[in-house]
Amino acid sequence: MIRYTRWANSPDPIKLCIVPPARYARLLVEENIVLPSRHVSTQIVDFSPTKLLEQCDVVYFGNIKPSDQELLIQNMQGKSILTIAEDNPECIKGSAFCLRIDNSGIAFDLNLDILARSNVQVNPNVLLLAKKKGN
């Protein structure tokens, strides 16, 4: 998803913050994410809307309640942040992209309202792959 996202300020590096506990935190930190002509810096950041707003371009929520995820969105005020959640099955509030992880693989739902408030642009082809929520 990061590869297909554009920020108004074109950050370099793109700062990916993983909020634990997250099932794939270790993999995301250890995996060197390489994008064409863009760098990604990955760090683990404890849940704090203020810290996340200051330090992140992408927030990957692990097991964080959707109502807590929503605190970040409510305080963005013009910042551009892509939000992705591991544990947000209904995808009604909290994050723009909500992962569905099961034995058959990984899919995702999309909350168009939150994506619109995120101040980022995602390639329309990615949006077509998602099951849309909150629209």
Secondary-structure topology with pairs:
Elements: E1 5-7, E2 14-19, H1 25-30, E3 34-35, E4 38-44, H2 49-55, E5 58-61, H3 66-74, E6 82-85, E7 97-102, E8 105-111, H4 112-117, E9 120-122, H5 124-129, E10 131-133
Parallel strand pairs: 2-4, 2-5, 5-6, 6-7, 8-10
Antiparallel strand pairs: 1-9, 3-4, 7-8
Quick structural summary:
The protein has 135 residues and is α/β, with parallel strands linked by helices.
Overview of this structure, please?
This is YfiR family protein. It comes from Hafnia alvei ATCC 13337. InterPro entries: YfiR/HmsC-like. It holds the Pfam family DUF4154. The structure is a single chain. With 135 residues, the chain is of the alpha/beta class. The chain has one domain: Type I PLP-dependent aspartate aminotransferase-like (Major domain) (Aspartate Aminotransferase, domain 2, 3-Layer(aba) Sandwich). It is 25% helix and 33% strand. The protein has 5 helices and 10 strands. The chain has an 8-stranded mixed beta sheet with strand order 3-4-2-5-6-7-8-10. Strand 3 and strand 4 form a beta hairpin. It is globular, with a radius of gyration of 14 Å. The protein starts with a strand and ends with a strand.
